[in-house]
Amino acid sequence: MWVKNKKIALTVGFSWVSVFGAGCGSGTAISYPAIAPVVNSALPKALKASSASSTGAVEIKPGSHARSSLQHIMSVTPSNTQTTLAQQYISKLFSEYFANINNGQAYQGYLNNMVLNIDMRMANLGSSSSNCTKATPSSYVIDLSSIDSMLKFTLNNLQCSSTMSGNAAGSGVVFGNSGNNYSMWLSMGPKTGTYASGGGFMLFANISNYGSTSTTTPESVDGMLVEYSPASVNNRTDIARFKAITTTNTFELFIGSTQQNIGGFKDSNVNDGNGANIYLGAGFRMISDGSHIYSDGTLYDSTSSGTYYAYNVCLNAADASLDSTASDCQTLANSFTLNNSSASLNFAEISGYASATLSGASASPCSGSTSDGSNINNCIPSPTTNANQTTPTSTVTSLFAKIFPISNASSVAASY
């Protein structure tokens, strides 16, 4: 079982990951919280992972097909639309097993699997001391706000950086802390080739008030992740923003993916490669408060007319069952703090195609009525067409390339 208030013992080396440079000097030996258990602790009971540590992995058979703060000012009225599929997909997003790009094993839950990448890499640093840990922490801004304003992310406390020997240039971690407030940044490119040829994974996170049980100064994790691979690899872009506050039991998550089926393996028996579909279109968001879960966005119904539909759903936090009184989520649905005043991380934003003709989609994506879902069908290509593999525009991909190298933080983080 995972333990929430658990710091990584930075003495573990993983044979499947690249080696970081060792720390040196007379600074303080580093000790950093594991992020995944903190995030898991804030999830509603029905969506918690059974394990939120790297020891909770299951083996994947080689060759298996594994797919790897602005106040919201819109008024939302929950109406429980497309509830059956929404309930299924949301539960699967947290209960299925997903292939980890760090070690090739599988971990339960889409977000849990992503966050574990930085926990494992921080654990690989070792426990040496370094002069960089004596420096005054500095802030650094990761700016993808031209995609969506919620993607301007400030890392509050950076001191040290460590490159990865064996991964593409620019790969490594940047980290630091001020008391019980921690910042961590992971950029991980391919082991062969460059970021341009193979893409990469980036995760940025702030942990505030680690270990606190106070509701006025709560323990929390605020994070953003970007995963991009070019058309020559598997042609996928995922962006997510999340906030987990453990002491108030609240959680927010936004996901945008150009691959509309983000499904993993349906259970821990992943050796058979048997996956289950999670047809959640870009623009997914959810919020929970320990009593209820509210979510809205787009989903694909392959059993009906084979198109995308707008959905919103109110679920009970204890078991993810449908709350038939949708108005029970009225306050919650209007309590998002991460997103802006318009739809966030939708297909048009993350692909860069605000108006363009795509194979398998209508001639004018992102036009039409939001009430009947026709704009959704125009914006998001069907998972059953080649347009499912939409390559973002060069404008979008160049933004990813710009924020990837940890050398960007050289002015605020010294070598570890």
> Helix/strand-derived class?
alpha+beta
Radius of gyration (CA) equals: 20 Å
Number of domains: 1
Unreliable residue stretches: 1-22, 57-73, 269-273, 355-378
- Measure the end-to-end span: 32 Å
Largest sheet: 12 strands, mixed
Mean pLDDT over the residues: 78
Instruction: Give the % helix.
Output: 10-25%
> What order do the SSEs take from the amino end to the carboxyl end, as H and E?
EEEHHEEHEEEEEHEEEEEEEHHHHE
List keywords for this structure.
18 strands; 26% strand; 416 residues; alpha+beta; disordered N terminus; two-stranded antiparallel ribbon; 8 helices
Describe the structure.
The chain has 416 residues and is of the alpha+beta class. It has one domain (87-415). The protein is 15% helix and 26% strand. The protein is built from eight helices and 18 strands. The protein has helices at residues 35-42, 83-95, 110-123, 195-198, 330-333, 347-351, 374-379, 394-403; strands at 7-8, 19-20, 32-33, 97-99, 106-108, 138-143, 152-158, 160-165, 172-178, 181-188, 200-208, 220-229, 236-245, 250-257, 284-288, 292-301, 307-316, 414-415. Strands 2, 8, 9, 10, 11, 12, 13, 14, 15, 16, 17 and 18 form a twelve-stranded mixed β-sheet that branches. It has a two-stranded antiparallel ribbon with strand order 1-3. A hairpin with an 8-residue loop joins strand 6 (138-143) and strand 7 (152-158). The longest helix has 14 residues, at 110-123. It starts with 6 loop residues before the first strand and ends with a strand. The model is unreliable at 1-22, 57-73, 269-273 and 355-378 (pLDDT under 50).
